[in-house]
Every structure is written in structure tokens, then in C-alpha cells.
Protein 1
Amino acid sequence: MTGAVVAASSALPGWAAAAARTLTPQETGAPTMRSVEFDNNGITMAGNIYFPAGFDQARRYPAIISIHPGGGVKEQTAGLYAQRLAEQGFVTLAFDASHQGASGGMPRFLDDPMRRVGDVYSAVDYLTTLPYIDAGRIGALGICAGSGAAIKASSTERRIKAVATVSAVDVGAASRKGWDGKGKASDQIAGLEAAAAQRTAEAAGAAPVYVPYHEPLEVA
């Protein structure tokens, strides 16, 4: 795990020195964390900010947004990477996707890839309002399905200066072809037909249907 974090941080251009610099005695110790909220087009987002040891509000720090996997929350993988990156000198924000975890948004448990991209935009907005963040050095780290949101957001969001992924998953391809990549075109059409029928039903007042993020794994 530590090696993966070091590799991700070293991929951020011009920031390797910040990550690898020797800490002074006043800066040694563990990172600290603070829970925060920020706005995302009317949805209240819940996040955790991790601060390097010896954090000084009078300084300006490079920042990284840690984007959690599908079905995850900020306290899990994204939070662990955020903590490890804070140990290397970055202020790091992990947050729950909109409609998920402690963040707002209805319906609950919605996992819409483009909305997750919008979540990243709002996280960047929030970081730029913090006086101790160097707005010219904001990066994004996507983990598993969060990688797609990180890459898509970074392709158009010019305030994201660097991007890295861990165990990247192409959610679009997985949705079309299944997790094993063997899905047929006929399966895709059947899925679209089922989704269309369900939207029609919900428009008439039917309850939403929840489906698993992926098929259960078979254990031999």
C-alpha cells in the first residue's frame, strides 16, 4: 500500500520534492483530520481533510483530492490514501460522492458517473476557497471506479494540475461488457430496455429498484 501511494505522489509533476522533503523536528508526528462540508450545486457534500503534521495555516500547501471507489465512502480506501499523502506533505480531501455516504442528494445510492465528475469539480471549487491551499498545485487521485471520475474531470478542469490512479477501472466498459469483459451487445440492449421500463414505472410513482454494484464473487 505504501509503495502505491509513493508512486502516485511521485507522478505529480514538480511536487516530488514536496512529498520527499525531510521534515524538521517541529513537523514530525501524525497527520490530523477535520470533517468539512461544501456545496455541490445545492447538494451538501461531506468530506474529511487530512493535514500534514506541523500544519501551519500561514503557509500554502499543495492539495490532492482523493476519490473513492464505487460503493465506497471517504473513511475507507480514499481516506487511507489521503492520510498517507498527508504524511508526505500534502493537504488531502476525501469526500463521499453525492447521493452516497454522508453527502446529500436524492435518490440515495445513485452512482451516476457524470455526477461523480461534477463532485470533483465542486471539490476543486472548495479547495480554492481555503487560504492555506496553493490553488496552482491541486491534483486528483482516483481509486478503482473513482479513477474514471478523476481522469474525466482532469481532462477539462484546468485547475487540476496532475492526476494519478490506483487500480483504475473503466466503469463505462464494465457497464457495457461486464466485469469480465465478455458481455454481448444483446445483453447491452436488454439492459437498456430494462432501464427504460423502470424509468417509465418510476415516473408513474413506482418505487426505485436497487441493483448490486457487481455480481457476487463465487468462492470455491
Protein 2
Amino acid sequence: MSNGDQLGLVGGSTIEVGTRRSDETSVGQAVVLLEWDGLIVENMLLFGHSVTVVAVVDQQAHEARLAEGWGPVTDRMSVALWGEWPEHAVVPPPVMSLTGFIARSPRWQRALAIASGFVGFGSTAILLDQDHEPNEHCLIAAHLRGIAVLRSGRSSGDAALVRPGRTGPVPTARPTVVSRWVEELVYERFVGSDCFMVSGVE
């Protein structure tokens, strides 16, 4: 990982991540407004949709995996074996803890449909590219799903929090093979430095 800023993580160690500051983007502003902690990974293609993922790094686990030669494991079948036959599998420690997911679109119906698919993984939000306030239908539908609503004006580009959402995943959610696989995909982007720190989080 090179050409990045040295940023402190939990445990006092530093690693290199992306060079952008989070408050330079409307997505970064949205994450700050949501008070989510972690690293921001934009344009993650998950289940056919592009979303922004925010995740917290376990620096100790990351260093252990570096020492043991465990890179990100993004093959879904390999990760599935960890859950199906844990007694026979050598499983590396998880590094990423999923904080939240943001779906962005000018249309609230599309953003909400995408965000709804991630309510079992963490906090969720939609970021609407529009200057006007979202209509009541949007706010009610998002509220029923526990999804936060933000908008980013097309002229100014500044993000504004319209309505907060639920903190964390839905209460019935449990860790699964799929959620672990998503963690490994995010870890791959983290190792490639394709992410940046939330402003003010150390």
C-alpha cells in the first residue's frame, strides 16, 4: 500500500489508506452526518448493485493475517466451507466489521430498493441527488425499513441529513457465510488502499 496518508487505527499502529479526506465528498459528508465510524469504500459492487460501504478495521487481526500470509479470501465457495465445515477449515480472523451501507441515486425508489437489501448487514442509508426535500412517501417508506435519508444538492454538492435511521442491522440479523464473504470483499479493497478514513475518527 503506497501513495497514501498514514492514519492511526485502533491499537496505535498506522497503515496507509487513500489520500482523500472524507469531507471532500458528499458521501464522506453523509457518513459524518450519520456518525458512522470506519473506513469509507465507495463503488462496491455487491449483489449487482453499487453501494458505499463503511467498515471498521481490526488492526490486530490485519497484522496477524499479514504475518501468516492470509490475504483477502474472495472466493465465495471457500468462505462457504468455513461455515459448513468449521471443524475441518483453517479460518483466518475477520478484519472488517461492517458499519453501514449507502445507496445513492436521484430516484428514491431505486435507492431504497438497493438499501433494503443490506438491512441485515449493518446500518443503511440512501443519498438522494436532488436539491428539493424528499417527499413524504419516501420518508415513510424509509422509516418503515429503518433506513436513513440524506440528500446532496446538485448545485452545492453538500450533503444534508433529512431523517436518521436505525443503528445497526435489523434485530433478527445474525452473522452468516454471506456477511463474512462481504467482509472479505471489503477487506480486499482495504488492502488495495481503495478507501479513505471518516473525518475525525482515529
